[in-house]
Amino acid sequence: MAYKTLFSVLTDTALAGPVLDQAIAMATAWDAHLDVLCMGLDRTQAGFYYAGANAMILQETITRAQEEAREVEAHVKKILQASDVRWSLDSGVAQLADMGRHVAQRARFSDLAILPQPYGDKRGVELEPILEAAMFDGTAPVLMVPADCPVVTAPKRILLAWNESDEALVAARSALPLLMQADTVRIVVVNPPAHSPTRSDPGGLLSQYLSRHGVNCEIDVLSKTLPRVSDVIVRHATDTESELIVMGAYGHSRFREAILGGATRNMLEHAKIPVFLAH
Q: Whose CA is closest to 9, among 74, 120, 92, 98?
């Protein structure tokens, strides 16, 4: 198994560098094809809430989005042309409420989506729904790339967050090509349930499964010594010098995490190394 089709969506030239560096490096390492979608977005949503908006207002928003798309496309094309990977480039415009279907349509036929960190300074509101569209509607695993983090192609130390959920298992299976190349995969279990059927051996069955694929596993059972599980995972990743975090995404509903927070949202906000997500 290998990643042969990589996919990315870019809406801002300022965020393109780290994502393209990661995508190009992985395309080279995996001899993969890289598809990039450059999008200009109508962020005013004139078609939805301007009562009686005339044609001039609508045309202005479309023109602005087209200019953004051309700017991003030109920037990305220059970078891709300087690389040695096989690539294709497409661009288009969409309203915020409608962009998900364009992202999902392309993500469906990719092995891995490589996307920028959706939260942080000077990041557009579109980045979170783009990530969710690729993962939920496009059913593609996502590699989230924070700014200023090293490029990883074959990380030797990987932290795999495990809570026995379906999402965590999907993430582990989706990340197998990377896990099989690692020197050590740490299966991290935070506060395992006291009455779980696997309470005497948390992470044992997953370790057995991965070991049959040649993955060298270690199991770390941690106490929740910080307010959030994601904080414990991030700190342990730092302590163990992990190069990649693998985790299931949105075990709770996206609405609940948006309002109350959750491990996925907090990880997307605070991770300093790439995070491999699947649902």
A: 92
Q: What is the pLDDT of residues 163-220, one digit of tens each?
A: 999 999 999 999 999 999 999 999 999 988 766 666 667 899 999 999 999 999 999 9
Q: Residue 112: what are its φ and ψ, rounded to 5°?
A: -160, 130
Which class is 5-145 in CATH? alpha beta
Domain boundaries defined on the chain: 5-145, 157-278
- Give the integer Cα–Cα distance in Å for 277 and 279: 7
Q: What is the mean pLDDT of residues 90-99?
A: 89
Instruction: Match 């995490």 to its residue by tokens.
Output: 257
Same fold flag, 5-145 and 157-278: yes
Quote the CA–CA distance of 263 and 242 in Å, as a whole number.
Answer: 18
* CATH no. of 157-278: 3.40.50.620
In 83-167, the DSSP E strands lie at 86-95, 112-116, 142-145, 157-161
Q: For residue 189, give the H/E element and its range.
A: strand 184-190
Token output for 157: 């130390």
Q: What is the pTM of this model?
A: 0.90
